[in-house]
Amino acid sequence: MRRTTRYKVEGANSLWHVYKTVPFFKVVKNFIVIEIARYMPFLKAKNWLYRTFLRMDIGEQTSFALMVMLDIMFPEKIKVGKNAVIGYNSTLLAHEYLIDEYRLGDIIIGDEVMIGANCTVLPGVSIGRRAIVSAGTLVHKDVPEGAFVGGNPMSIIYTKEEMEARQNR
Questions:
Q1: Does the N terminus or the C terminus of the chain have fewer Cβ atoms within 10 A?
Q2: Contacts of 71 (CB under 8 A, 6+ apart)
């Protein structure tokens, strides 16, 4: 179950209320920083941009591949542990703007997590330590520690115990 906070809106859909929920200039600043970082080939510099300007909590030696798209409105709700890899063109969303409401939720990615290319992580999700998310996965629920998950809808391919058994063969 995703952990999000829901906020009801009246009248037009919630995206029409966007600048009541997040300041315009914060969005502009975040957009500029994220767009620069998406093409930045230097991992230390990219992490410095995220920590300094987006107030993200990012562990040492974490790698964001080229074209990773972070939540433009609420990047500070994303926490990534140490030595994790976020694959090419993946998207991390801490918000959802719907018709009658918008939702906000933290994304917590553990240490030594591998997220493959072209994944989307939805708000309110935790990915446990040493988990592997296969390329192209929509992460719509929590991922247990050490599990290998994939698909759309996401499902557990191997549990931590099954992964350990496979590695000990």
A1: C
A2: 77, 78, 92, 93, 94, 95, 107
